[in-house]
Specification:
The protein has helices at residues 47-65, 99-110, 116-131, 141-151, 154-173, 204-216, 224-233, 237-241, 284-293, 315-330, 339-350, 355-362, 366-372, and strands at residues 6-11, 15-22, 25-32, 35-44, 252-255, 257-262, 265-270, 278-281. The chain is an alpha+beta fold. The protein starts with 5 loop residues before the first strand and ends in a 15-residue tail after the last helix.
């Protein structure tokens, strides 16, 4: 047997041909247009036959260079075998990218288009879910769905599947994959499971007890007026944290910015969660809070509710430490700090304030208020005298 078992005629940008030994027989391996083809010569691996294979390889490469290559390989079959031997055509299938690879590319594409907080929290959360999957192969999309439904809340699973579906739709547009295995997958999620809809307000007595306990606590008294403000305006924590003195007029609080979490930490962004801006009328209770904390010399750019270090209050850190500690100290049933907002709205509903007005003060819809607060606030309500 001729010992030289492999050679190559060289490579160029259009294609290349190699001679290989396959079980003692000479084969030509042709790389062309990103695909690999094999042509069996039917000849034993001897020195004389190897010379013949080199000539055949040179012929194929010349055709490639001249753009007349016969992709069926029929033209290059030995004359004695053209009618009896079918050329071996074995294109190598392009490997499908896996879900984590697609997600990284999709995330890079979406980063300039979403808010810093959305990218830092939501995209990172979905990336972590993908990392924990038992498989990231698109051929096992059903197993991915079942894992998410078994290990996440229904709401979280639905959000993740929605993003995976969007990722794959984008990947199709980019030519990375051909089909979206998540396109027809659906999950049912109980309604009203977000913080906006988890209405479990504090009573007036609980509210006042919480405020008094903050005021008397040697560790967390700094946050007393921040908590009062949340209870008596119903604003979102992100809005209170970002509030500056330039946004306080004689009669109005002008909510124009909010603090969000980004890859670089807490940052101030223009606009609110569901709207660009909102005004809140200052009443006597809110005026008392502002008067108590107003500095003698006001810097309009200063925060109304800074942290003890003069920076943005990290509401997540505040909730896990100060808020949790004070509620435990009060012996009040634990509820998230976001319930300060629900407490304000609920008390307004109990006072028979028009739901449209409440919605304008708090940045939500009258329909949401009627659906989630009105149904539980009929105490003492009587039909009018219609005679």
């Amino acid at each position: 047997m001729y010992m030289q078992s492999k050679t190559s005629t060289g490579r160029n940008s259009k294609g290349s041909v190699s001679i290989i030994d396959s079980n003692g027989r000479l084969q030509l391996r042709v790389n062309y247009a990103g695909k690999r083809r094999y042509l069996s010569t039917g000849l034993a691996n001897t020195k004389a036959n190897f010379k013949f294979a080199e000539l055949k390889a040179a012929e194929i490469e010349k055709d490639i260079l001249c753009e007349r290559f016969d992709t069926t390989l029929q033209k290059y079959q030995p004359k004695s075998t053209q009618t009896t031997i079918t050329p071996v055509f074995t294109p190598i299938e392009k490997l499908k990218p896996e879900l984590d690879e697609l997600w990284e590319k999709y995330s890079t594409f979406k980063k300039p288009q979403v808010s810093p907080s959305t990218f830092a929290k939501d995209f990172a959360r979905h990336r972590n879910h993908i990392t924990n999957l038992p498989t990231r192969s698109l051929d096992e999309a059903s197993a991915i769905r079942d894992y998410l439904l078994s290990n996440l809340t229904p709401n979280a699973a639905k959000r993740c599947l929605t993003q995976l579906k969007a990722c794959c739709n984008w990947s199709i547009e980019e030519g990375l994959i051909e089909t979206n295995p998540f396109a027809t997958m659906k999950t049912k999620v109980p309604k009203g499971t977000s913080e906006e809809h988890e209405v479990n307000p504090f009573s007036k007595e609980e509210r006042d007890l919480i405020i008094r306990t903050f005021a008397g606590d040697r560790h967390y008294s700094h946050y007393t007026n921040y908590v009062r403000f949340l209870f008596f305006t119903g604003c979102r924590p992100s809005e209170a944290v970002g509030l500056k003195w330039k946004n306080i007029t004689k009669s109005m609080i002008q909510f124009r910015e909010s603090v969000v979490v980004s890859e670089d930490g807490l940052v101030l962004k223009d606009g609110l969660k569901t709207q660009g801006k909102r005004d809140f009328p200052i009443n006597a209770e809110v005026q008392a809070i502002l008067d108590e904390i107003r500095p003698e010399k006001i810097n309009p750019e200063s925060l109304v509710f800074p942290s003890p270090q003069g920076k943005f209050i990290d509401h997540h850190n505040f909730s896990s430490r100060a808020w949790k500690s004070i509620l435990s100290k009060c012996n009040v049933l634990y509820r998230k700090c976001y319930q300060t907002r629900h407490t304000f709205i609920s008390l307004c509903v109990e006072a028979h304030i028009n739901s449209t007005a409440i919605g304008r003060w708090t940045g939500t819809s009258a329909k949401m208020i009627d659906n989630h607060y009105g149904a539980t606030n009929f105490t003492g309500l009587k039909p009018p005298n219609l005679s």
